[in-house]
Amino acid sequence: MTTEKRSPLPKSKLWEELRLKAELGIHGVAITKQALDFVRPAELAQEQVHNLFEMDFFVHDFELPSGYDLPGGISVPFRWNPNSANIIDLDGSRTIITNKGHEVAEVRFHKRPGFYGLKTSDGQDMATIGALYRHRALFFAYSNECSYKDRGEDCAFCNINHTKDVYGEKKGIFWKTPRQIGEVAAAAFAENAVDHLTVSGGIIPERRELEYYLDVAEAIQEHTGLQDFNGTAVVAAPLDLRQIDRFHEAGYRTTAMNIELWDKGFYETICPGKARTSGGWDHWLHALKYAVGVFGHGRVRSNMVAGIEPKKKTLEGLEHLAAAGVVGTFSVWCPNPGSELEGHRSPVPEWYIDLAAKTTAIWKKNGFTFQQVSDCNASNDSLQHDIWRIEDDLLPSLQESSLELA
Ligand code: SF4
Question: Which residues form the Radical SAM core domain (predicted)?
Fold first, then answer.
C-alpha cells in the first residue's frame, strides 16, 4: 500500500499541501489548453471516468485528467472549474498551479494505467468499467441509477441520475455485467495496480441487489483466482439483515452502508428516499451495527456528506459509529451540477481540515488500523487518510505512477 520512498518535505509543508488540496477540492481548478494538450488525458495522463457522480463544476464533452500529485506526494482529484482562481498551466515542460500569476505548486498528473487501454471479451473499453483511484484502489460503479428518483426522493446532494442523463452510454455509463467486472479486476491485479476494490451503485430493489453482488463476487474470484479479493460491497441497509451475512459469505472482506447525515431532521429533508423507503435512519444504524457482528470491527464503513449539517452533529455521528466498530468517515460536500443543492456553497477549507483531523483522531482512539480504514473505503485518498499518512510518516514521495513528462 505504501512505497519505500517517503515524502521529502517536512510535516509543516505537508500540512500546507493538505490545505491546498482542500481548497482545490472545494473551489476546483482551471487548466489551460497548453497544459491539457501537454498531458493528453486518455493517452498519457489517466482520464476521468464518469462513474456515479459528475464532480466537475460543469458538464464537458472533452477528456479531462483524473488527478495529480503535489510536490510532497499529496494526491488531488482533478475537479474542473474554468472560473477558479487556481489555474494549471504549462511552464516549459512543467505543469504548475498559478494563482494571480504566481506559482503555487508544481503538479504531476497520474499516469494512465495499462489496463485502461484493454478491452473486455465483449469489446468494452476497460476504462469505462472500472476506475483506478489513487493508492491502489479500483472502483466499479455497476449502474448510474437510483430508484429513489422515480418518487422524487433522491438525496438532495446527489447527481447520480443527472450524470447518467448527460453522459450516457457513449461515456461508459451503462449496467456492467459481473463478467466485465471480473475481467477488469483480473487485468488490474495482473498489472499490480491495485490491492483493493469496491463495488457500488445507486439504490436498486434489495433482492436484485443481493443476487447481483453475489454474481459479481463469483466472477471476480473466477477471473482473478483470488478467494479473498479485498472487496467492499457498498449496499443499502437491507430490510432483511440476514442478507448482510450473504455478502460476507460471498467473499467481500468489508461492507459499506452510507448513512450520509447524523441529524435526523436534516436526514428527513435531504435524504427522503433513505428516510422513507429503506427502513429509515434508525434501521440504517441498526444494520451497520449488525454488520460489525458479521464482518468484524473496522470492516464496516459508513460515509457522511459533510458540510450540510452542523459539524458537531457529524462529529457526534463519527464518534458513535467508531465506538460501535464502524469506520465512520466523511466526504467533502461539492454542490454538484444537476443536484438539488447545485448553487449552494461548501464550508471553507479550514472547516474540513479541522473535521478531518478530528476524524483521524477518532479512528485512532477507537483502535482502527490504517489498513482497516483503507480497506473499507472506496479510496483512501481523503483528507483524513492524508492526515494519518502525514502524522505517521506514511506519505510516499512522488509516486512511480505520476507522469514524468520533462
Ligand atoms: S441513495 Fe441518495 S446518494 Fe445514493 S445514489 Fe440514491 S440519491 Fe444518490
Answer: 132-371
